[in-house]
Structures are given as C-alpha cells and as structure tokens.
Specification:
Pathway: Pigment biosynthesis; anthocyanin biosynthesis
Order of helices and strands: HHHEEHHHHHEHHHHHHHHEEEEHHEEEE
Enzyme class: oxidoreductase
Protein name: Flavonoid 3',5'-hydroxylase
CATH topology: Cytochrome p450
Shape: globular
Number of strands: 11
Distance between the termini: 70 Å
Helix content: 40-55%
Keywords: Heme, Iron, Metal-binding, Monooxygenase, NADP, Oxidoreductase
Radius of gyration: 24 Å
Oligomer: single chain
Number of domains: 1
Strand content: 5-15%
CATH superfamily: Cytochrome P450
Structural class: alpha+beta
Binding site for heme: 442
CATH class: Mainly Alpha
Number of helices: 18
Length: 505
C-alpha cells in the first residue's frame, strides 16, 4: 500500500505542477527571456548534465545572452555575454545581492552563517569589513607580505629537494599546502601543517570535495518537496564533510585561545574578529559565524588561486614558447641571482598577461555563485519574475568569439596591446570577471590576483618545467565545481634556475 500511496501522491504532484506551469504562463503576460522547454516537474534539470557551464554555454548559442529556464519549481536566468552580465551585476546589482537557499549554505556553511552565502545585510557587511581590514585589503596584504615570502620559501625548498631526487612535483598538493599555511599564519598566527604529508593531503581532498559538492546542481534545491529523499546523495556527503571541517575548525579555535598570551601586541585576524564581533547596528558575530568565516577563508583562499596557477602552468607546458618568453622577461628584469619579489610584478607585463589569459580561459569559478531577484524587474525588454535565480556563465563569457579572437587559443599577447590592453579582472570590465562583480564580488579578489601573480611568477622564474617522460600528452579535461579543477592533477619535473640560497625560507 505504501508504494501505491507514494505513486498516487507523485501523480498528483505532477498534475499540480502542470497546472502551476499553465497558470504561470497565463499570469506572466510580459515577455520572459527565451529558453528551452523543460520536462514536467524537473524542468530543464536534465539539460544541465555533469558540466553545466558548457551545457549552458551551448544552449545560449541557440537562445541568446539572456536565457530563461524553469528548473524544478524555480525560475532561473542565465547570462552569457559581457553586456548582459553588466545589466544584472551593475545596473540591477542591489536587486540581485542575495543568495537563494541551497543545500551547500545549509549543510556546509553552518546554515548560511558565513560571508559567502549570508543574507546581504549588517552581519554580512561586518564579516566582509573585518576580513578586508585585517587580511584581504591593501594595507593588510602589505602587513603580511613577510608571511608570503616565508611560506613560498618553504615550498621552493621542498621543490628543490624533489628536483635533486628526480621526483615529479604534484602542483595542486604543493600549492594547497603552502597557501593553507599562509592563511593559517595570518588568521591564527601559526602554520596549519608543519610538515607536508597525510594531514595536508586530507585537507586538500576536503577542500576539493567542498568546492565540488557545493557547485553541483542538487535536485532538492530546485524541487524542495522531495529534498528529503536526497536522490543524488549530495546532502548526505555535505553533512559528513561538514563534520570533518567542524572538528578541524573547533580544534583550531581552541588552540588559538590557549596560545593568546604568546600574541600580546601581535594580534592576528582571529584576534581582531573576536575583539570586534559587535558593530554599531547591534549585530554580533557568534562562534558559528566565526567558524563559518574561517571555513570561507581556508577553502576559497586555497582552492581558487591554486587552481588558476595549476591551469597556467599546464598551458605553458603545452606552449613552451610562452614559458620561455616569460622566463626571458624575468631574467631581463630580475636577473638570475635572486628570487622574484612582489615589487617586481609591475615591471613584468607578460607575466600579468599570462595571468589574465588564464583567468579568461580557465576561470576558477565557471558559474558565479547564484543570486536571487528580490523584486521583479526588466532586462533587455524581458520580464524577470521575483525570486528568479541568476547565474552568470563566466566561463562562456571568456570563450565568446564575439568578444575574444580565437577564444580557444591560449594567447597572452591579446592583453598586451589593442582594445584588451587595459582590461582588468577586478570586476569593472565585464569581458573578464573571474571573481564576479558588484556587491557580491569575491571578497578575496585583490588577494587572489596578488597570490596568482606572485606565486606563478616565482615558480616560472625559479625552475624550468617539464613533463615526466611517461606523459606524452597533457590532459586538460575539466572537473566541474565551484572551482574548476583539472580532472588529472598536474605533475611535473622541475630543474632549478637560481643559486641554491634562493630556495630557502
């Protein structure tokens, strides 16, 4: 009987959905953006596939730069060109400043108590203000430049030892280890991983799992009435992962509290957050808010930048002439007697062009984190209902042949002259928005650009790079998530190019 009851309920649900869709078409007499006709109940979900950014880019070629989809019970609009992105993220920014509810916010981000998923309001502003003032802002970045120098030295030392042994370097693991320690020193006044090993590898796996699962299109987010079934097993995985992170974050907080006497006169980010957890508007950050903020900083701060650097090195290994040209520029500016320092970057236009080209072709976030319309609005003559989810296909914008000549080619020269020479990835030029734009632009934009330029430049200047003899063709396949990972992590052989004293902390 239970099965019969379930089937009857499911049939009623389908008929109700069809009725709602019919009423929806009659109610919205205004013109909706064009888009594919979906299936009953599930709408356009089957069209998204395992690589939604590529599926949506393909559909946009047929339906246009502003595309409407019915996904489950939700309205969704996808934009795929710079002009369309500008209309939503600049002109209508305030109307699209909130995030829709989803499983990632609930199960990973402590019920949206973090900075990434939180409602746009006083608490979100307080979290963002504190992280910018004491970690990601211009002065803060200057204040902890010595941390970056030291951790990069540890990484170079490890790579130098690998080169002597003839061992390949696994780029993603190496970068995650170094960046987690950089962030750990700024937030907690300590290296999170003293030695590279199983703990740091497990942390890397946890971060990748978080960024992957949070980016998946979860059926329960779009058909809330069946969310309890967890048909894809996504929510169960999120809950298990959250427990792992919570154990780690709780331990870090407790150890930080116990070591407070050692930091007198030298406060770190967590000290500042704890000291300023109240604001003038009566908002107070709870321990949950603080753990959620730490989760944001450690996960996004390590994975997005490391993935960009890995993609850049992969492209240069496929195009050795680009690698050689970058090294030649550095020899001319820096010489071969010392490491690159951050003040060198402004005199390395080709390095900066390589970074921009990687942001364009391999954006760390292929689809921006979704936003939701607070009120109904109109864009390009199309009606956008209240509650519509907005997704900006950053990956598609970077590969738009109407914007970029030969977009599938990795060509840093496109940023050295002509119309693209002044394009900047900080959110004002909508042809290149790897960090998003508007009020909800990634809070770590400035830090992310600096880390990519500094670390990538150091790796290129310090070593020659080659693939192992067993690799005849470099795999460039993508793995979809909040951050765009390589399916096969890059492993390469390195040969030192500088004096031995350059490879030390």
């Amino acid at each position: 009987m239970a099965i019969v009851d379930f089937l009857a309920a499911f049939l009623i649900f389908i008929l109700t959905q069809k009725l709602i869709q019919t009423l929806f078409r009659r109610t919205y007499r205004r013109k909706l953006p064009p888009g594919p006709k979906g299936w009953p109940v599930i709408g356009a979900l089957p069209y998204l596939g395992t690589m939604p950014h590529t599926s949506l880019a393909y559909m946009a070629k047929k339906y246009g730069p502003v595309m409407y989809l019915k996904v489950g019970t939700n309205d969704m609009v996808v934009v795929s060109t710079p002009d369309a992105a500008r209309a939503f993220l600049k002109t209508l920014d305030i109307n699209f400043s909130n995030r829709p509810p989803n499983a990632g916010a609930t199960h990973l981000a402590y019920g949206a108590q973090d900075m990434v998923f939180a409602h746009y309001g006083p608490k979100w502003k307080l979290l963002r203000k504190l992280s910018n003032l004491h970690m990601r802002g211009g002065k803060a970045l200057e204040d902890w430049s010595n941390v970056r120098i030291s951790e990069l030295g540890h990484m170079l030392e490890t790579m130098y030892e690998s080169s002597k042994k003839g061992e390949a370097v696994v780029v993603a693991e190496m970068l995650t280890y170094a960046m987690a320690n950089m962030i750990g020193q700024v937030i907690l006044s300590r290296r999170v991983f003293v030695t590279k090993g199983s703990d740091s590898n497990e942390f890397k796996d946890m971060v990748v799992e978080l960024m992957t699962s949070a980016g998946l299109f979860n059926i329960g987010d779009f058909i809330p009435s069946i969310a309890w079934m967890d048909l894809q097993g996504i929510e169960g995985g999120m809950k298990r992962l959250h427990k792992k992170f919570d154990v780690l974050l709780t331990k870090l907080l407790e150890e930080h509290k116990e070591s407070s006497s050692k930091r007198k006169g030298k406060p770190d980010l967590l000290d500042y957050v704890l000291a300023n957890r109240d604001n003038s508007e009566g908002e107070r950050l709870t321990t949950t808010n603080i753990k959620a903020l730490l989760l944001n900083l450690f996960s996004a701060g390590t994975d997005t930048s490391s993935s960009i650097i890995e993609w850049a090195l992969s492209e240069m290994l496929r195009n050795p002439s680009i690698l050689k040209r970058a090294q030649h520029e550095m020899v001319q500016v820096i010489g071969r007697n010392r490491r690159l320092v951050e003040s060198d970057i402004s005199r390395l236009p080709y390095l900066q062009a390589i970074c921009k080209e990687t942001f364009r072709k391999h954006p760390s976030t292929p689809l921006n984190l979704p936003r939701i319309a607070t009120e109904a609005c109109e864009v390009n003559g199309y009606y956008i209902p209240k509650g519509t989810r907005l997704s900006v296909n950053i990956w598609a914008i970077g590969r738009d042949p109407d914007v970029w000549e030969n977009p599938l080619e990795f060509n840093p020269d496109r940023f050295l002259s002509g119309k693209n020479a002044k394009i900047d990835p900080r959110g004002n030029d909508f042809e290149l928005i790897p960090f998003g734009a508007g009020r909800r632009i990634c809070a770590g934009t400035r830090m992310g650009i600096l880390l990519v330029e500094y670390i990538l430049g150091t790796l290129v200047h310090s070593f020659d790079w080659n693939l192992p003899s067993s690799v005849t063709k470099l795999n460039m396949d993508e793995s979809f998530g909040l951050a765009l990972q390589k399916v096969v992590p890059l492993a390469a052989l390195v040969t030192p190019r500088l004096p031995i004293n350059a490879y030390s902390p």
